[in-house]
Amino acid sequence: MQNQDYDVLNIEGGKPVKMWTRGVPVEAEAKEQLAKTAKMPFIYKHMAVMPDVHVGKGSTIGSVIPTLGAIIPAAVGVDIGCGMMAAKTTLTANDLPDNLGPLRAAIEKAVPHGSSPVQKRRGGRDVGSWNTPPQPVDVAWAALKPEFDAICEKNPRLKNTNNYKHLGTLGSGNHFIEICLDEAGAVWFMLHSGSRGVGNAIGTYFIELAKKDMRTHFINLPDQDLAYLSEGTQHYDDYIEAVGWAQKFARTNREVMMHNLIAAVRTVISKPFETHVEAVNCHHNYVQQERHFGKDVLVTRKGAVSAREGELGIIPGSMGAKSFIVRGRGNPESFNSCSHGAGRTMSRTAAKKRYSLEDQIKATEGVECRKDEDVIDEIPMAYKDIDAVMLAQRELVDVVHVLKQVVCVKG
């Protein structure tokens, strides 16, 4: 069935799934996963699916899940509050050095990035964390700590998590820091990260509690990862408090990284410049209460961005592909949402098997970035065509700026 700018997947025994996916591939497995979620009894009206949709753990990435009276912790996931931040500067392309290598090196020195397996951590420290956090981290953590301490009093298992030393750090996987140029040659700073180790601990802990609740009450689910917490229970209240804090941590994490990124650039570029000429800081893995179709509902965006009318957002491409600063059109049928990126077309394992280091080097030509076997899984060809993704959601957002990276730092 077709209706306006989206297609509708009708689910027997469940709510409809409205899909803004015309012109982009959608795996059969993703549709099956969406159908399972749509059958949950507390889904409100319909689910909305963005063009970057693909199979995820817990719930489909690129989906918007409105619920009444319940929440699915695994749908929010473990990278709680993961999102983007971008800031326009008064620099132009002509102000960048011809050799961008020192610029990338300065950023890599200023912002811990990557991660090390537990068995390889030196002195118990993850390479992606601070050894001694700088003053901006101290200030930011002082504001976050009291609420976290209160959460830990109720949930002692969360106490020994890596939080303070992860604040202002990048992480690994698809997280990145970029220096970009827009269509007019203005320089932008952009980064992608979330709530790091503490968000992972909170997500994992409450996913386990939700599964335990299902077993306690003998509730059968189409998928274990759809275990939910019911409104009115202590676990529900505790999760709402903890997930809200983790989202605050994630937003602060990006702000601290941006502060350190700007300071690093100033050590290489001597010309005075201003930042935050236009700035955006948005989540794309999160849950919050919103009003839709006359009701207050919980909206979980699993790889989706809020796109209320006039609201600015960020839709990144991949290494070597352009990104977009967008303005929301406030489409009610999408629950005021848009995609969070291009979306993967294959797993990281499949990408490493299919593509070579030579492919990676060619695909990132002109970008100062890592070019080694450990980042082949982030090769642009492992993602959907960002132009097709943008075309599929033209009724959800308007493009404000088109960005192309010239420097990319990945963990």
Automatic annotation (TrEMBL):
Binds 2 manganese ions per subunit. The active site is at 340 (gmp-histidine intermediate). Its cofactor is Mn(2+). The keyword Chloroplast does not apply. Mn(2+) 2 binds at residues 192, 284. It catalyses: a 3'-end 3'-phospho-ribonucleotide-RNA + a 5'-end dephospho-ribonucleoside-RNA + GTP = a ribonucleotidyl-ribonucleotide-RNA + GMP + diphosphate; a 3'-end 2',3'-cyclophospho-ribonucleotide-RNA + a 5'-end dephospho-ribonucleoside-RNA + GTP + H2O = a ribonucleotidyl-ribonucleotide-RNA + GMP + diphosphate + H(+). Its EC number is 6.5.1.8. Gene3D superfamilies: tRNA-splicing ligase RtcB. One of its GO terms (molecular function) is manganese ion binding. The keyword Amino-acid biosynthesis does not apply. Mn(2+) 1 binds at residues 79, 175. Keywords: GTP-binding, Ligase, Manganese, Metal-binding, Nucleotide-binding, RNA repair. GMP binds at residues 174-178, 284-285, 316-319, 323, 340-343, 410. One of its GO terms (biological process) is RNA processing. Residues 111-131 are annotated as: Disordered. It comes from the Bacteria. Pfam families: RtcB. Belongs to the RtcB family. Monomer. This is 3'-phosphate/5'-hydroxy nucleic acid ligase.
